[in-house]
Design a protein that fits this description.
The complex is a heterodimer of chains A (368) and B (280).
Chain A lengths: L3 E10 L2 E11 L4 E5 L6 H9 L6 E6 L2 E2 L10 E4 L11 H11 L4 H14 L15 H14 L4 E5 L7 H18 L2 E6 L2 H7 L2 E6 L2 E6 L1 H6 L4 H6 L6 E11 L2 E6 L3 E5 L11 E6 L4 E5 L6 E8 L3 E8 L6 E6 L9 E6 L5 E3 L10 H5 L1
Parallel strand pairs in A: 3-8, 3-9, 6-7, 7-8
Antiparallel strand pairs in A: 1-2, 1-4, 4-5, 9-10, 11-12, 11-14, 12-13, 14-20, 15-19, 16-17, 16-19, 17-18
Helix pairs in contact in A: 2-3, 2-4, 3-4
Chain B lengths: L2 H35 L19 H7 L2 H34 L5 H11 L4 H14 L6 H26 L2 H9 L4 H12 L1 H17 L2 H6 L8 H6 L11 H34 L3
The chains are: A alpha+beta (368), B mainly alpha (280).
């Protein structure tokens, strides 16, 4: 177990700057998830920590040691690969024992370690099988076992569930979470799936174009996204965004005019933004109510998706270029073609300025 | 029988007729060599397509010659050495060329391919000087050296393409497990590369086994010769007599092991060749 500290970390491949000035502190025993769209550098960042890529600039510490120049085997990290990358010609036992044997451990120690790991992952029955005789979920567990057998200080996962089907993915996700509770070791996990990130992480790191966009607990990221990008990335269905115009800002909050919704009084502090400038209002599908349409402010229901426990209602504004989603508990009486008015819950509204940065709450409303 | 069925039948007959032609064309010379080798020398110039009686005299005659057995031994040693060295160098070179990113990698690969285009005769005199300088004249080691030069490009090329197809993550997993490049090659890649190894190894073996020009040029005495030269130099009672019977018997004796080897490895050869063919 160990902490990881990244300081001004950079990675440059030829002329492409992949990782840009990343600062990050990962505590001992934390489960950290790197999440972001493809090409954001999350896998590269993981490979830098693993030692599979060299660091162009900056420092990386594992525990108290600077590991910039250390090869992977001396960093005390274990890695689970997306394709599992099991050695096809070796049995499960040999796969897990390979690293231990290379470390020149005594045969009994190797045996003990492999058996102990196999017990944790319920692989005891499969030890003599070859990878091709295993199911996807079993291979996944062997890949984890191989990474764990060396008792690394840090376990790294590179999109480990993306090759599994949906139901198995949920099951393995659960197993990984339980494994973390049980081992208590530091784990770093890369995924593009925000559901995996939300369910597994103690701390989520959202990456975009090689920079850290926001770091925080799943709760923080969901409740207080700092940028429009994070707001749109976390949560499913994604947050609804609407253009808004700043009408007035004061110490108590601000008032904005939103097309199709009307004028809203919000607790956000917009005192640094000029009146009349264009903002973006964000509201999650579960944070708004639908009411019978009155006057001009009407949306048309264009589709209703029934999912059993909940219902998604798709809305189109009159001038119709953005589609909004409303989520409500089933059953719902809304019908396609119906005209409705939209009432967002004021306390759950997010407001983003022209640079897509979230506006904070005024001190007054913060206190309340 | 209607017209459709007739057409089908004709097509089928035509196909088999074609196969028969190809088969006869390919196999007949070898078949005739076998037949000739089993005839007594008195019947040698009588044209027979079927064997009336089997006579092993020719085989007894060549196999009782010490120099021929010695030549077989030489050939085995030379061919096996070539295979071993070519595979060893080939696989390590393939790792470097297929797995390590370095400047000029493509140039090196193309140079290797280019070298293999030269005909043997073109380098014969130069190579002769090299072998003389290295003091390897009339020594099987000289043959091993010269055959390896011609075997290596093909070996490197095929093994490199094969190596490139092995997943990157497999190597990275080995690195994470603390494997050095040498351990990765021998304990992770080698076991996965048997088809390619069998193919290239066998082709290297055949090339070394059948080579004539270098073997003739670089050896002098009977006890250093390899089989192809030994066969060519089998002489009869007088200089006007070519002893076809023993020559054929010797040829069959040294070809049969190759045929058996190819039969054993044929599946592997096919998978190895196609695996190398499509670049990954």
């Amino acid at each position: 177990m160990a902490s990881v500290t990244l300081e001004k970390l950079n990675k440059i491949f030829g002329s492409t700057h992949i990782i840009k000035d990343v600062d990050l502190a990962i505590g001992n025993g934390e489960f950290v998830v790197f999440v972001g769209p493809s090409g954001c550098g999350k896998s590269t960042l993981l490979r830098l920590i693993a030692g599979l890529e060299s660091i162009s600039d900056g420092t990386m510490q594992i525990g108290d040691d600077v590991v910039n120049e250390l090869p992977p085997r001396e960093r005390g990290v274990g890695m689970v690969f997306q394709s599992y990358a099991l050695y096809p010609h070796m049995t499960v036992y040999e796969n897990m024992a390979f690293g231990l044997k290379l470390a020149k451990m005594a045969k009994e120690t190797v045996d003990d370690r492999v058996m102990a790991t196999a017990r944790i992952l319920q692989l005891e029955e499969l030890l003599q099988r070859k990878p091709k005789e295993l199911s996807g979920g079993q291979r996944q567990r062997v890949a984890m076992g191989r990474a764990m057998a060396r008792e690394p200080k840090i376990l790294l996962f590179d999109e480990p569930l993306s090759n599994l089907d949906a139901s198995l993915r949920v099951q393995m996700r659960n197993e990984i979470a339980r494994l973390h509770h049980r081992l208590g070791s530091t784990m770093i996990y890369v995924t593009h799936d925000q559901v995996e990130a939300m369910t597994l992480a103690d701390k989520i790191v959202v990456l975009r174009d090689g920079r850290i966009e926001q770091v925080g607990s799943p709760h923080d990221l969901y409740q207080r996204p700092e940028t429009r990008f994070v707001a749109g990335f976390i949560g499913s269905p994604t947050m609804n965004f609407m253009p808004a115009e700043l009408v007035e800002a004061s110490g108590q909050g601000c008032r904005v005019q939103v097309t199709g919704v009307g004028e809203l009084s919000l607790p956000q502090d917009a005192s640094n933004t000029t009146r009349g400038s264009q903002l973006t209002l964000g509201v999650r599908p579960e944070h708004m109510r639908l009411e019978e349409a009155q006057g001009d402010n009407a949306f048309e229901i264009v589709n209703v998706e029934y999912l059993g426990n909940e219902v998604y209602v798709y809305l189109e504004p009159k001038d119709g270029d953005i589609l909004l989603v409303h989520r409500t508990e089933a059953p719902s009486d809304w019908q396609v073609g119906h005209k409705v008015a939209l009432a967002p819950e004021i306390e759950h509204i997010h407001l983003f300025d022209g640079d897509d940065k979230a506006l904070g709450l005024t001190q007054r409303s913060e206190a309340a | 029988m209607n017209q459709y069925q007739l057409m089908k039948l004709l097509k089928r007959v035509g196909l088999y007729a074609l196969i028969a032609v190809v088969l006869v064309y390919a196999v007949f010379p070898f078949y005739y060599a076998v037949i000739t080798s089993l005839k007594p020398s008195s019947d040698l110039f009588q044209v027979d397509f079927w064997l009336s009686s089997v006579n092993f005299n020719n085989y007894v005659q060549i196999l009782s010659q010490g120099s021929f057995l010695r030549a077989i031994m030489n050939s085995i040693i030379v061919a096996l050495s070539v295979v071993f060295i070519a595979l060893l160098l080939g696989i390590t070179a393939a790792y470097a060329l297929g797995r390590v990113r370095f400047r000029g990698r493509t140039t090196v690969l193309l140079t290797i391919l280019g070298v293999s285009m030269f005909p043997q005769v073109a380098v014969l005199s130069g190579l002769f000087e090299v072998i003389r300088t290295l003091n390897l004249y009339n020594n099987p080691a000289g043959l091993v050296l010269s055959y390896t030069i011609f075997t290596l490009p093909f070996t490197v090329w095929v093994l490199t393409t094969f190596m490139r197809q092995l997943p990157q993550e497999l190597e990275e997993a080995a690195i994470m497990d603390g494997a050095t490049p040498w351990v990765t090659i021998t304990r992770v890649f080698l076991p996965l590369m048997w088809p390619a190894m069998a193919t290239t190894g066998l082709l290297a073996f055949i090339a070394a086994w059948n080579e004539f020009l270098f073997a003739l040029t670089f050896t002098l005495t009977d006890d250093q010769r390899t089989v192809p030269v030994a066969i060519a130099l089998i002489s009869g009672g007088s200089q006007h007599e070519l002893p076809w019977g023993p020559i054929m018997a010797a040829s069959v004796t040294v070809t049969v092991p190759l045929v058996i080897l190819v039969m054993i490895f044929q599946r592997r050869i096919v998978s190895g060749l196609t695996a190398g063919a499509v670049k990954g």
